[in-house]
Specification:
- There is one protein chain.
- With 551 residues, this protein is an all-alpha fold.
- The protein folds into three domains: 1-15 and 51-127, no CATH class; 135-225 and 486-508, no CATH class; 227-480.
- The chain contains twelve helices and no strands.
- Helix 7 packs parallel to helix 9, helix 10 (310-347) runs antiparallel to helix 11 (354-388) and helix 11 (354-388) runs antiparallel to helix 12.
- The longest helix has 131 residues, at 395-525.
- It is rod-shaped.
């Protein structure tokens, strides 16, 4: 098998050589092997090896040596390079062929065994590092343990140092962030709301950076929400106080309006009372004149004479006119009282409305007095007529008419007296009710005044608190803006550190590759560097099989 492969390679190389050489001697062309065509179904026989010492044998030996030189200079495995160098330096004529047939595979097995042993040692060394560093270091340990052998070798060569540097930088950043957090909490403890101040001071009192960080992440929000709820409660109380003050102002306006209307109503009531008094006096005077006329009639009957009734009739007429004028005045006063009573109803403060009812009763009593005075006038007229008819035949009819007038006069007087008494009783009742209501109104006024003062105090307190909260809100807004600037700066620093770590790792990996390449190059330069020629294979190419032909 080895001879067949060597002959095939030699034929290929030789064929290329003879095709490119146009001036070669005829005897060399005659010595080229010829292809033999076999019948279908038969296997190709093994190529016939060229005679020893031929040009083909020499070319094959040169190619084998060149291939081994490539292994010695460019192969990735040190064991393969060393075995190739030993074969090249050996005086054994079969050393190169032995290397190609089995030496390379043995060297690669040794390299694999070495790598496995190194990786086992690396794994054990890295496993011992578990949990001994910072977060990033421990994460890298787990990553390379689950990765490739190259990952573990690179980690021990430079990755562990990079990871520790990353953790140190992160720890330094944590300290810086903790200091910034502390400053922020100190600021909140001085300018925040009541709940924020209390929670911030409690976090600072612990001296624990973790507690301070948790306060900024969660506690500040909770405390700020409490302050916001308190602020809403203050604003709600202020709104209620303002509404109460508005109601008090409205009540005061209504009270003033009702007081004015009540005063006018009482004045109208007084006017009605005065008019009733005048009408009552006129009614009494008219009644007196009717009785005077009756006495004159009795004297005329006894003395058989006729008296002059003109003065009596004139006086009773005057009293009727006075009563009528007073009744009209009482009616006007009752109308005015009714208007003011409607004002009281509009304001809802109906205390004193019944005075208008009293005024209406007084007006009715005054009207009754007018009617009684008019009846008295009619009685006087009837008496005068009776006196003039003393000698007349119709004396009986006149007496009957006079009796009727007197009866009517008595009835009108009785009715007027009853209405006056009723008006007086109603006035007494209203006066008693007014006294009771006045007392209650005084009490309610005092309570309203006290309430007004309390609401005024609440309004002032709410205004002061609102001003303080407004100032606090402005300070907290400034704090939030500084927090945003801090966060932006921290993000920029973190990105810069991440880029620096990536750059450092790339530089370290490049350095490791350069060191390995230089070590391989140094091994090849120890034997001398050969130039590449036709048929030279790249490093790492593995030759499978052997070379045939005579040894």
């Amino acid at each position: 098998m080895r001879g067949a492969v060597s002959v095939a390679v030699a034929l290929a190389l030789l064929g290329g050589t003879t095709q490119g050489a146009t001036a070669a001697p005829a005897e060399r062309r005659d010595s080229a092997p010829t292809a033999v065509t076999l019948p279908a179904g038969q296997l190709d026989p093994a190529p016939v090896p060229p005679p020893a010492g031929s040009e083909l044998d020499r070319l094959s030996a040169d190619r084998d040596r060149q291939l081994v030189e490539d292994f010695a200079e460019f192969d990735e495995e040190e064991e393969v390079r060393e075995a190739a160098r030993e074969a090249l330096e050996s005086t054994d004529p079969n050393a190169i062929r032995d290397f190609l047939e089995h030496g390379e595979a043995e060297a690669r097995q040794r390299a694999m065994d070495r790598k496995n042993a190194v990786d086992t040692a690396n794994r054990a060394e890295i496993e011992a590092m578990r949990g001994t560093g910072g977060p990033f270091f421990n994460q890298e340990v787990e990553r390379v343990l689950a990765g490739t052998a190259k990952d573990r070798a690179d980690f021990l060569a430079f990755g562990a140092e990079i990871a520790r540097q990353r953790d140190e930088a992160e720890e330094q950043n944590e300290k810086q962030r903790a200091e910034e957090n502390r400053k922020r909490v100190e600021m909140l403890a001085s300018v925040g709301g009541p709940e924020v101040k209390k929670a911030a001071q409690a976090a600072l009192a612990t001296g624990d950076d973790k507690v301070i960080s948790e306060f900024l992440e969660k506690g500040y929000q909770i405390a700020a929400e409490k302050d916001s709820a308190d602020q809403e409660a203050h604003e709600r109380a202020q709104k209620e106080a303002l509404e109460a003050a508005a109601k008090l102002r409205e009540l005061a306006e209504k009270t003033a309006r009702a007081g004015e209307a009540r005063g006018k109503l009482i004045t109208a009531h007084g006017s009605a009372v005065q008019a009733l008094k005048k009408s009552s006096n006129a009614m009494s005077a008219a009644a007196a004149q009717s009785r005077q006329a009756d006495r004159m009639l009795a004297a005329d009957r006894a003395g058989k004479q006729l008296s002059d009734y003109s003065a009596v009739r004139a006086e009773v007429a005057r009293q009727v006119a006075l009563a009528d004028e007073a009744a009209k005045a009482a009616e006007v006063a009752a109308g005015q009282a009714e208007v003011q009573a409607e004002v009281l109803v509009e304001t809802g403060l109906t205390h004193g409305v019944r005075w208008a009812e009293v005024a209406q009763g007084i007006a009715a009593a005054a009207d009754a007095a007018v009617k009684a005075a008019t009846t008295a006038q009619h009685a006087v007229d009837a008496t005068a007529a009776d006196a003039a008819a003393l000698d007349a035949q119709n004396s009986a009819e006149v007496h009957a008419e006079q009796a009727l007038k007197w009866r009517e006069n008595a009835e009108e007087h009785a009715e007027a007296a009853a209405r006056t008494a009723a008006a007086a009783q109603q006035q007494a009742d209203v006066a008693a009710d007014a006294a009771a209501r006045s007392k209650q109104a005084r009490i309610e006024t005092e309570q309203a005044e006290q309430t007004a003062w309390e609401h005024a105090k609440k309004t002032r307190d709410a205004r002061v608190e609102a001003e303080r909260q407004r100032k606090t809100a402005g300070e907290q807004r400034a704090v939030a803006e500084r927090e945003r600037d801090y966060a932006a700066g921290a993000r920029v620093r973190a990105e810069a550190e991440q880029q620096a770590a990536a750059s450092a790792r790339a530089v370290a990996e490049a350095g490791a590759h350069r060191v390995r390449a230089e070590s391989r190059g140094a091994g090849g330069r120890g034997q001398g560097v050969r130039g590449t020629g036709p048929g030279r294979r790249p490093g790492g190419h593995r030759r499978h099989g052997g070379r045939g032909g005579p040894r």
